[in-house]
Amino acid sequence: MLASLAAQPHARAVLGPAIGPGMASHAYLFYGPPGAGKRTVARALAAALLADGSADAAGVAGRVSRGTHPDLTWVAPSGAREMLVSDIDGPVVGASSLTPFESKRRVFVIEQAQSMNEHAANRLLKTLEEPGAGVHIILLADDRSAVLPTVASRCQAVRFDAPSSEKIAAALQDEGTPRACARACARLALGDGQLARWLASEDGDALRSQAEALVHTALAGTVDERPWLPLLTYAKDAGRAAAEQAHAAVAEQAQQLPPKDARRHLREGAEAERRAERRRRSAVLDLGLRVAELWLRDVLCLAYGVSDAVYASDREAELGGFLAAVQTRLQVAVTERDAEPALEAQAPAGPSGDAVRVALGDAVELVAETRMRLALNVSEELALETLVYRLAARLSA
After folding, report:
1. Which fold does the domain 3-162 belong to in CATH?
2. What HEC string does the chain produce?
3. Every domain range in the chain assigned CATH 3.40.50.300
4. pTM for the complete prediction?
5. What is the chain's pLDDT, residue by residue, as a tens digit (397 residues)?
């Protein structure tokens, strides 16, 4: 665990003593931006706690890393935007009173703790105040101030700092990623090292290409072939893969339980699989749209003449070509307006730099708005279709 804390001095100072017998707190709040390493350290700490007294510490760590240890419960929000009471009540509050299956302890990790609604938080308070023997709860949050004070005050706070994009890029280069790609993926990940590594992979590059193609087809006006489908299909495939992984984990856990408990675990696991599918599909789709949003943002940077601020620096030639295409499309729109006598007096001679920048700025906002709509569980295909048509209209008028 200490090795995973090498770049986190505050977390190392707080958690280092927790490795000692009887030194771990009953509740921690790990807070910091995505990609700062909270999940990695939470798994390492859980493995250290659950391996206490075990003759097979490596085996414990392996099952913790796969999410199949029976005394580790990992909770993620099932609501569209928040942690529900049902996410906390049975999986944490109810289970915390049960005897551990094989370890001396039980560990509960709660992701996105800042998304707990008031009812869910109130259900957790009693357990935080009076935890059962051997119960340890680790809350993960991107923003400490967003966690309800009644919850945060009952946990030992552990701060995690995001690595700089330069450090992330250097790490990617050490792993064999070409320099230009490493630098771009590090910046596109906005400080999330794990995401940067994924973006640098073949899967990540495929997602980037699909997101960029979505914007290109909107600019070209070729929307009849439903260019949003490849991105949507990619997200659905990722969701199915996550469900299969969750199913394998549930099946492995069930093998370690008595038959009656195993059947109940498999029934409950079916719902966990559906949640895993939905979360992963939504996350990949949002990531694809974020890449499209950042692409348009990079083009806008070029329109302002600030090339140093471009994130996708490995695509700078393509970004320049896209900017030129936007200028051409707007020029065509101006020419068509000039041909209308009624509009001749008010039409400018050509697309000004301001007009191009305003159009690109509006396009960025359209993608951001779509991401917010998808967070509210609207129809994914309808949201993408609407986005493409609106982008096509805005970038050509």
Report:
1. Rossmann fold (3.40.50)
2. CCHHHCCCHHHHHHHHHHHCCCCCCCEEEEECCCCCCHHHHHHHHHHHHHCCCCCCHHHHHHHHHHCCCCCEEEECCCCCCCECHHHHHHHHHHHHHCCCCCCCCEEEEECCHHHECHHHHHHHHHHHHCCCCCEEEEEEECCHHHCCHHHHCCCEEEECCCCCHHHHHHHHHHCCCCHHHHHHHHHHCCCCHHHHHHHCCHHHHHHHHHHHHHHHHHHHCCCCCCCCHHHHHHHHHHHHHHHHHHHHHHHHHHCCCCHHHHHHHHHHHHHHHHHHHHHHHHHHHHHHHHHHHHHHHHHHHHHCCCHHHCCCHHHHHHHHHHHHHHHHHHHHHHHHHHCCHHHCCCCCCCCCHHHHHHHHHHHHHHHHHHHHHHHCCCCHHHHHHHHHHHHHHHCCC
3. 3-162
4. 0.71
5. 566 677 788 888 888 877 766 788 999 999 998 878 899 889 989 999 999 888 888 999 999 998 889 999 999 887 656 788 888 988 899 999 888 989 999 999 999 999 888 888 999 999 999 888 899 999 999 889 989 999 999 999 999 988 889 989 998 999 999 999 999 999 999 888 889 999 999 999 999 999 999 999 988 877 787 889 999 999 999 999 988 887 887 787 778 777 877 787 777 777 778 878 888 898 899 999 999 999 999 999 999 999 999 999 999 999 999 999 999 988 876 565 555 555 444 444 445 568 899 999 999 999 999 999 887 777 999 999 999 999 999 987 7
